[in-house]
Batch of 4 targets.
Target 1
Amino acid sequence: MAAQVTVLAAVRGTAETEVVLALGVPGSGTTVTRRCGDVVELLAAAAAGAGAVAVVSGDLPGLDRETVARLHGSGVRVVALADGHGAERLRALGVDTVLDGAVAAAVGDGLLDAIRDAADGPGLPAVPAEGGAPSPLPDGAPTTPGRVVAVWGPVGAPGRTTVALELAAALAGLGPAAGRRGRGGRHTHRTERTDPRDVLLVDADTYGSSLAMRLGLLDDAPGLAAACRAAGQGALDVASLARQSPVVAPGLRVLTGLTRAARWPEVPASSLEVVLERARELAAFTVVDTAAPVEADEVLMYDTHAPQRNAATLTALAEADDVVVVGAADPVGIQRLVRALEELREAPVVVPAPTAVVVNRTRASAVGPGPEAAVREAMARYAGLDDVVVVPDDAAGLDGALLAGRSLAEHAPGSPVRTAIAELAARLHAGAAAVATPAT
Ligand SMILES: Nc1ncnc2c1ncn2[C@@H]1O[C@H](COP(=O)(O)OP(=O)(O)O)[C@@H](O)[C@H]1O
Ligand SMILES: [Mg+2]
């Protein structure tokens, strides 16, 4: 006879007795090992390995995406009793099985089967199920998922945010049309693009966000935190993501970052994954500005469920189709960049090989005459890279743009920084097109 399936019950009210009795019947093949009063108890029991399947009430307080992910992380499958509490929402949380209808009916019909099926299901840990009905797309929008571009780089302010912002602007087609220049007022051109969807810029730098400030969204509530909160509750769809991401220039949306670094736990991996998944529906490109640190919290390694300080950066890198690494073009910056590229290969998540390595603020005063050649030579020698994107220094242009609260594409489209980054954007467009139309 098969072993008994161990069950953690976190069921509210009178239904608990019903469930526990039904599961305790001899021959049921199940045994309730813990009766948990709340989510905290449930997570503790799961972490202690006390059960294989959790049976939870649909309205259990604190039951969110993160909870389900943590149960999965402990190897526990989740069966939820909807009992009129939104089966769709429960599926969107990543619950393995949702029993619709009243508890009494569920206990009579499907509960035992559901538990046995859940226990026999494919092993965990797996990626939490991405449930939920597919979200509606804007009319006429292509159904190919948009691409996620993570912009990352070492510490020392090499220009991650600058590159992320200008890249997003360039991908959105912002920039000069020949012969016309912006003079006073917002005056922006948008070149023709094949994908009508917007470009979304996400500030996921949980150490020092700055995009709201740079785009003059001064008193904006952090859109990313709100989007993550909705994702955690299984309530984030394309429309709600769009509501959190104001359009700051034609074709360019921004999801602003945390206003205080201490709020970093508000961007857990399990939620950011969903935000990026929805972003792929909303936007042709989602450019994610990240923080520098990528190490896992060693002290917490024994507790795989503890929130990780660097989860936002690691998630962005792991989910990215394109990784753009940014370093600074001075001796210290280049040394950090070379080490950063190694660090990326050894990161605790699998990160795609960089699509582009950008060496920013290239100038003679930092690396000597012929700065571009010097930078290329250094990168070839120390990093074995003969293909780097060299971005010149333009302090006046960037300071002016910062002061004006705009991208260079809008404020100083003639800047050589913008031109260099526009070439990078062209490279990403080409990569996306190659994926969209495989060789025939
Ligand atoms: N190519 C460049 N030329 C001149 N200044 C730059 C350039 N790139 C970045 N900067 C400036 O350097 C500072 C730090 O850039 P930022 O993008 O915020 O770095 P990070 O996001 O890596 O911390 C900003 O004041 C920015 O305007
Ligand atoms: Mg930054």
Target 2
Amino acid sequence: MNYRHAFHAGNHADVLKHLLLCRLFALLARKEAPYAYLDSHAGVGLYDLTGDQASRTGEWREGIGRLWQEQHVPAALDSYLEVIRAMNPDGVLRHYPGSPELARLQSREQDRLQLNEKHPEDGRLLKENMDADPRVAVHLGEGWHVPRALLPTREKRAVLLIDPPFEKADELERCVTALNEAIGRMRQTIVVVWYPIKDERQLRRFYRDMEKSAAPKLLRAELFVHPADDAQRLNGSGLLISNPPWGLEEELRELLPWLAERLAQSKGSWRLDWLIAE
Ligand SMILES: C[S@@+](CC[C@H](N)C(=O)[O-])C[C@H]1O[C@@H](n2cnc3c(N)ncnc32)[C@H](O)[C@@H]1O
């Protein structure tokens, strides 16, 4: 396990994923009923963008760094940016939330968080960072076991983020299995699968397998900062979302073109479509 998310925190892919999570939490809050948030590959939860690891790549400068300087942003970005503003009250961008901290800050008293991180050191930091909140449970187990271990939840609504490091060749396949297991155990689960886009050809089989998955509905949202033709580079990233709440597709249709323009490095673009339509 060599991957350390601190090198990549706040980059364009984190922006897409974290913004999507914030929109999900906002849309779920339209109803009082509680939800459970499950994070199979949670990371440490909090990042210092001036720290050694984030500084070495500087990836965040082309991600959250760009949005931070924007004067006018679409309203759907507000809740995401408000969290980051609150973490950086002096107006200088330094602290950045991971998915666990975003979920913690955007969820309500009645909601519950189950976070999992396998790396021992990162797991310890995650525990430390989440310690004060009684709604949060941190597990240090195998991320791929999360659907089987934690679903169905006692809450009738659940969001599961599957965000592995993609260090190993079989991780796309494992995402398909994890999504199928989650839907098999709790059909209405909102599963969010994040994946990197280098050369698009590498994803054909993944898309085909996902089209045949058990998800009742599956939305695909992708954001490119370069054309997807160089396998050595992170050209963009994608999210597959099962059972997206009503209103999410429309919001993404407004947000993605805006993000593609603001976050483009050589050429920005986006895609939003259904891999499984109802
Ligand atoms: C992309 S990062 C997660 C980022 C986090 N979800 C966020 O958005 O802030 C992937 C994490 O998975 C952890 N990891 C790697 N292999 C794992 C496994 N088999 N089970 C659980 N966690 C694992 C890594 O240590 C790393 O912290």
Target 3
Amino acid sequence: MRYLLYGVLSIFLSLIILPSIVIFGFSTHEVSVEKNLVLVEGGKSVKLDKLPSYEVIRVFITNQNKIEEMQLEDYVKGVVAAEMPAEFEIEALKAQAVAARTYALAKEVALGGKGCDLHEGVDVCTDPEHCQAWQSVEELKGKWGENFEKYYSKISQAVDSTKGLVMVYQDALILPVYHAISGGRTENSEDVWQKKIPYLRSVVSPGEEVASKYKTTVVVSQAEFVKKLKERQPSLKLTSNNILSEIKNIERTQAGHVKTLKIGDVTFEGKEIKELFGLNSTNFTFSKQKDDIVITVIGYGHGVGMSQYGANALAKEGKKFDEILKYYYQGIEIVKIEDLLKGKH
Ligand SMILES: [Zn+2]
């Protein structure tokens, strides 16, 4: 990436544009020469002569059913606190802060993002299944109890020490997806969402086994198993009482997650089975225990991008937040959002 410095010229110009900087709450004293920039892949071009005000974010608070405007950095604290255990290593929390900030800014309408498509005129919502989780200070007090001060100051330190830092790939904000536990290897984006995204590549993610949800099991009776599958696919025919012998052609991704499998005469996607039986991930195997089917699941979440438990394991090894992020998001750069907005790429 190329950074242009305007030196004396910028100081001179800053005197002229200072009033507008104050109006827009923009802290930089440098000016852009380029007037438009696409900051978000597939997003709208942003007119930089108007200095987009990105520091206030419009958030739809799902559990309160209301919209709130808040300072971006305060919002990021609420996301880190909601998305990652406060006991995690500080470098893992810092990596989470940069991921959370990048995600939010890539969604921000002011920067050309599409916003949260569930709620009009909103940048992000707090539904973890849709945008990213977020908790208010009040909720965190309830969650952490007497540890509130300690944990909130730790989260604040992680966010403040990475203030304004975002991840870019070819000068556009990335889509920094993350998940709890990959199960030992992360996924290629195209194996989960069809679209090949160059920085979302499958990487080994060691050290996750310490997570209590690394390996989980779901037990269902054979009758229940068949009933649920038939609810999804009424045409399903199972000819044997031995259900396991009817499960064939399991196709797995590079990370070991089930892409598709054939049960009886029907092909299911791994995702469908995950949804039907409430599994933590699509990395599963079947076994039989008397009349029950035991589904053993490895990992938690979609497996794409940064593994949060993997990030913590890397931090324990002494890796810094930027090394963690560059490991899980291949080929990215970490820059200050202000520098990106100065449009010198
Ligand atoms: Zn949303």
Target 4
Amino acid sequence: MKRTLQWSAAFVAGTLLPLGLVGTAATAAPAPSIAPQSERSLVELPAKDALEGAVAPSECGATLLDGYIDQLFADMSDVQFAFLVAHQDALLAVPTYDALFFGTAGDPDYALDSHAAQLRNTYRDLQRFWDIESDDIQLMAMHSDSLLDATRIARTLEAMVDTGELPFMSDAAIATEAQTVATFMQAQDAAFQDNPLWTLNAYAFSAEGETDPIIAALPDKLVFGDGILAAYDAIGLGDVGPRVIMAHEFAHHVQFELGTFDNGPSDPAEATRRTELMADAMASYYATHKRGLALNSKRVTDALLSFYTVGDCSFASPGHHGTPLQRERAADWGADLAAAAQPRSLVLPAERVIELFEEDLAEIISG
Ligand SMILES: [Zn+2]
């Protein structure tokens, strides 16, 4: 089944938490148990992978963002961390799914705030750069304040249950969980209320091919979380990172438009790796091209690799994005294609870029 919601933010599954904090958190929360993400969800939740890594540290490779994410966990009190473990489905998913199910581009609750002008300009520039129909994509933000509002939490959990994103919960259980989370969040300091982990995400969504009536009715979206923007600012990539992520997410919309998801390998892990590496290549092509952002290719690759590494340790997972080496090769491939443009201002049709990428994919993933 094709993954309609192409997620972006991903970071490494092996985020480490200082062992001492794991110990105390384990005491505070009787049985910290992090449910693995389901086989196929509408949106991947990178913070969920990070939480898994925090509770059971793994040996996965590190990215520029790891230290930043470690610190977000370390800065929580034991009570906060225990609450997060116990209510992870709400804290790590509600802002994402609230925007997916209820966000609209014109609603002030979903207005871009951080990096707003930069994101809007890049979005318009991408619409000009790629020769596809993109007027119908809604660009919006997701903020963590949905977690302060029991009504918003409840409607989001209900929609997640109705669409199978969460196992069954009764209306009463949903209402209780929503009230518990909203009440706890309202009593926390700003650092916890606005923790980047709740919105450490950016994703492209298209309902094309979906049969669930709730999902099929949703418009095309490109959603940016405040958390991913804060993370890039914190690691010194606030200038390049958000624009490159935008380019990667926009590439997924190009893929939706051209039916690229429909003609890939049948193995879900291989299929995801193909479309993710292709999105990296297209992001790099745009970001380094003279008619695109004309950015330095090393910085573009740093920005891509720091974030889109969710699959590093899960090569058979449907969420696998490719190894860091494969991703670097894909990004280099896009930069080389841009550098080879004759004349320099020539932008290839999206269909042609994809075709050329397919020809070289075997080499990009070799070894
Ligand atoms: Zn992606």
